[in-house]
Amino acid sequence: MAVRQGVDGVGGEADPVALAGGPPVSLRVDRISKSFYGVAAVDDVSVELHGGEIHGLLGENGAGKSTLCSMLVGLYRPDSGRIVLDGDEVHLRSPDDAAALGIGMVYQHFRLVESFTVAENIMLGRGTAGGRRARRAVEEQVDALASEYGLAVHPGAPVWQLSVGERQRVEILKQLSRGARVLILDEPTAVLAPHEADRLFDAVRLMVDKGHAVVLVSHKMQEILGHTDRVTVLRAGRHAGTGATASLTPAALNTMMFGNDLAGTDTTEGHTAQVPGEPVLTVSGLTVTGDHGRPAVDDVSLTVRRREIVGIAGVAGNGQRELHETIAGLRSPATGTVTTAALAYVPEDRLGTGLAPGLPIEHNLALRSFRREPHARRGVLRHRAMRETATALVDAFDVRGARDGMPVSFMSGGNLQKAILARELSEAHDVLVAAAPTRGLDIAAAEAVRRHLRSERDEGRGVLLFSEDLGEVLELSDRILVMFQGRLVGEFDRGSVDLDQVGLLMTGAAE
Amino acid sequence: MTSRLVVTPRAKPSMTVRAGVPFVALLVALGLGAVILGLTGAAPLTVYRTMFDASLNGARAIERTLTYATPLILTGLAAAVAFRMKAYNIGAEGQLFLGAIAASGLALQLPAGTPAVLMVGAMLLGGALAGALWAGFAAVPRAFLGTDEIITTLMLNFVALALMNYLIFGSFSFWRDPTRPVPQGNTIPDSAAMPVISGRLHVGFAIAVALAVLLWWVLRNTTFGFRVRTIGDSPRAARYAGIGVPFATLAVLAISGALAGVAGAIEVSGVTNRLDPKSLAIELGYTGIVIAAVARLNPLGVVPVAIFLAAIATAGGSMQSIGVRVEVVVMMQGLIFLSVTAGEFFVTNRIGLRPAGPPEPAVTAAAADALEGAS
Ligand SMILES: Nc1ncnc2c1ncn2[C@@H]1O[C@H](COP(=O)(O)OP(=O)(O)OP(=O)(O)O)[C@@H](O)[C@H]1O
Ligand SMILES: [Mg+2]
Predict the structure, then answer these.
(1) Residue A24 DSSP code
(2) What is the DSSP secondary structure assignment for residue B168, as one 8-state letter?
(3) Which of B70, B213, B251, B375 is paired with A109 by a 20 to 30 Å CA distance?
(4) Residue A295: partners with Cβ closer than 8 Å, 6 or more residues away
(5) Are B11 and A38 in contact (CB under 8 A)?
(6) A84 touches chain B (CB under 8 A)
(7) Around Cβ A458, how many Cβ atoms within 10 Å?
(8) The domain spanning residue A247 has which CATH number?
(9) Among all residues of chain B, which has the CA nearest to that of A384?
(10) Interface of A with B in 334-363 (CB under 8 A)
């Protein structure tokens, strides 16, 4: 076993200042493969990343994007193939190896310690002693980097007080302060308000101008087309193509992603007018205490009626989560009441709340119906029926990557989301509460979900939709409520939406 | 060209691997053990022969091993069912004592002429109830207040041991034989003795195996088992699915305690024939935790692991009898147990050498299509 670690002169912590002036980085992936349980997640993929470019990574759910990125940061080891950094083959055995070589990743689910401050989180995992001097040095470095890239954060603030956008900045600064020259962002804008996303891309552009390479994983076509220099598309684990963004059209990308089968995209059917019926969900005077003792939901009242979609717009972390968890009965309110008809619920937290991660798909799809016929009779489970239900739902909702007996935690993010939707929508219900139901879904799958939401409404049920994607809320909702710091600060009817006003309300700038 | 080790999980280990790996691991342990024994001056082959004779060779040896395994199966099950739900009952030790106290109490209290079936049945039931109740002292606060059951069940072990010792050594209780000056438990009537299968091996062993199968079936095939597995994997997901977590916690801890209590009752009825703290307090409860862990909390796995451990234990006793020092005995026991459990890693993972140099198309297009086909 010959494992070479560290490029000469860049052992351990790289000095970001020195690197900033160095030659542009180049990272080449050469015929890399990784399979799980004998199934290829990444299959013979070769890509080259250059310093100075933003490289988009596109592909449908389960295409292997996260697996590929995980190999670049040493989280998974390739079964075969090479990773070549600046002309030298490297063997990455852990994310620390990768960090030492200047490769860093910002995961979709942040990995920050809530009770630590920004500076402490950035120091964490660097192996430096946490003395006061060291902390001062880190704080100064963070401040310098933050102003250099326009990623303002307060180094002394505890992370739990930060908004999602701020947390993401901390993650990026953490990687930059460790000397990252290749930065991988896995679906970074899924949780950001539009203006926050713009700021992120400004910062990314600055990094790239300094010779860094940035990989942007995204399902949003506009983002890929608007902000990347080149794009690589994966399809079923294989390399479907790489090209200069300027030469690519959405149609070309779709073909690369989905093959010739473009069914499911671009079928946005019109929003038919409906007359709402009786209320199916009523929340009145609801106040909920959050995890840190602060009121997370503050005197919220709302009603959802049959045949309407009520959308809640807002930047993540403004109490949406506490609100829908309370509606679903997972939290208890401090004051106020929730009255609801039969409820289906798509939680924000897929693994752990929506699904039991260590159990297989047939178990998870029966999570709500296991007590009843046909899944059980007199307390005895009927495995055959459960498997049949699972097969039917997996087919109907196009859930991919599920394998017999395999824990669902091994499935890709988007497919987990589809599995939850499949289960929830197949249960009898009058109202659907969906939190970020299209987050992480590829374009086709997201459109399928939107279709499902519309037909929920058209079939006479009510829908309460939480989404950080303002465009999605506007597209789907009959009524839009804006949530900011735990309160509902605005209400608009479809058709009379003032976009600027909504944006301002979302960020509290309208006061 | 360089090559490197690649570890990949096996989707489903084949039968050959399942059966073969523990066997190879045992041979490795015996090989290493021979070196140790040689260094300490013993003749490895003679020692191994004695070990084998004592634990596995012949009806007597097997009876002894299986009898010893009986309470271990039950405490192993007690731990397995609770741990399955992440309720860490480490109180099987104390629950077993309570089961023994209740069973011996009933045996002494009921008329000696009671038919054996009724008598033994009452003892098993009483033992189960007592064990469940004792677990309940930790289960209720855990279920409703979230009190850490690791601490409470551990504390209750000490209380149970003190109680049992008090009944025999510290007082002239109903359990103590009044005719003897040396403190000793009162002997239970013949009708309270567990019927025998063969030689020393009593029906308790069959009961333990039957309970293992029953528990496996319940966990796998009932809605109750579904609840337990869901809670064990993710309490949040369980709550979200409308599963009553406190009630299930109570039920599972009660079942766990009952299994340990039955172990106590069976020991009294089948082996000690009296409340005998010295032969009951030999850490059967704690050993059950190890067994459950090695069996990966699978009730069916508990049975062979418990028998294996019992064989090592009886073999160890025989080594001492031919003059091998006790330290060496413990070392040998540890070595065998560790190798075989470490072998599990090779059962669940495939280790292979792969060249790190040129790529090999390890997976074909067919496999990639299978990925899609899996939906
Ligand atoms: N640890 C693992 N064990 C088994 N299978 C896995 C594992 N990680 C990923 N897979 C499988 O590999 C395939 C690719 O998954 P990956 O997470 O890379 O997809 P993705 O492109 O990131 O999808 P998404 O857009 O849904 O996040 C999927 O079929 C997934 O089920
Ligand atoms: Mg992914």
Answers:
(1) P
(2) I
(3) B375
(4) A287, A288, A289, A334, A486
(5) yes
(6) no
(7) 13
(8) 3.40.50.300
(9) B221
(10) 345, 347, 349, 352-359, 363
Of all protein residues, whose CA lies closest to atom 16 belonging to ligand 1?
Answer: A64
What are φ and ψ of residue A161, in 5° steps?
Answer: -85, -10
Determine which residue's CA is closest to atom 7 belonging to ligand 1. Answer: A410
Q: Which amino acid is at A26?
A: S
Asked if B264 contacts B131 with a C-beta cutoff of 8 angstroms, the reply is: yes
CB half-sphere exposure, B96, CA atoms < 13 A: 34
How much is the pLDDT for A13? Answer: 41
Chain B residue closest in CA terms to A41: B368
Nearest bound ligand to the CA of residue A412 = 1
pLDDT at residue A234 above 60? yes
Residues A42-75: tens digit of each pLDDT: 999 999 998 899 999 998 888 899 899 999 999 8
Of A358, A366, A398, the CB nearest to B233: A358
**Do A67 and A100 belong to one domain?**
yes
Residues 113-152 of A with CB under 8 A from B: none
pLDDT beyond 60 at B370: no
d(CA B242, CA B262): 32
Q: Where are the domains of chain B?
A: 66-312
- Report the residue from A380, A401, A405 with minimal CB separation from B222: A380
**CB-based contact A80 B354, cutoff 8 Å:** yes
Token pair listed for B69: 């395994």
d(CA A229, CA A217): 13
Distance CA A83, CA A101 (A): 12
ipTM: 0.79
Whether A231 and A364 share a structural domain: no
Give B-chain residues touching A40 at CB under 8 angstroms: 362-363, 367-368, 371
Here the tokens at position A486 are 């735990």
Q: Which two tokens stand for residue A4?
A: 């070479």
- Model-level pTM? 0.79
> Which of A32, A34, A36, A234 should be mutated for ligand 1, with most atoms under 8 A from CB?
A36
* B370 three-class SS: helix
Is B302 within 8 Å of B208 (Cβ atoms)? no
Interface probe for A, chosen from B236, B296, B350 (most Cβ of A below 10 Å), is B236
Residue of A61, A353, A363, A400 to mutate when probing chain B, most B C-beta within 10 A: A353
Instruction: Give me the CATH topology for the region B66-312.
Output: ABC transporter involved in vitamin B12 uptake, BtuC (1.10.3470)
CB B306 within 8 A of CB B73: yes
Question: In the predicted model, what is the mean pLDDT of residues A236-242?
Answer: 91
Contacts of A173 (CB under 8 A, 6+ apart): A118, A122, A142, A145, A146, A149, A151, A153
Q: Token match 């009944």: residue?
A: B167
Co-location of A188 and A96 in the same domain: yes
Residue A387 touches partner B, C-beta closer than 8 Å? no
Residue of B nearest to A235 (CA): B368
Look at chain A and count its residues: 511
Q: Name the residue of A72, A184, A411 whose CB sits within 8 Å of the most ligand 1 atoms, as the mutation to test its pocket.
A: A411
> Does A427 contact chain B (CB < 8 Å)?
no
A31 CA: distance to closest CA in chain B (Å): 6
Single residue among A366, A397, A428 that ends a domain in this structure? A428
**CA–CA separation, A113 vs A95, rounded Å?**
17
Question: How much is the pLDDT for A137?
Answer: 81
String of DSSP letters for A217-283: E-S-HHHHHHH-SEEEEEETTEEEEEEEGGG--HHHHHHHHHTT--TTSS-----------SEEEEE
- Are B38 and B299 in contact, with CB atoms under 8 Å apart? no
Compute and round to an integer the Cα radius of gyration of chain A: 24
Report which of A203, A182, A188 is spatially closest to residue A55, judged by C-alpha positions.
Answer: A182
Chain centroid to Cα B241, Å, comes to: 32
Using CB atoms, which residue from B11, B238, B362 is nearest to A33? B362
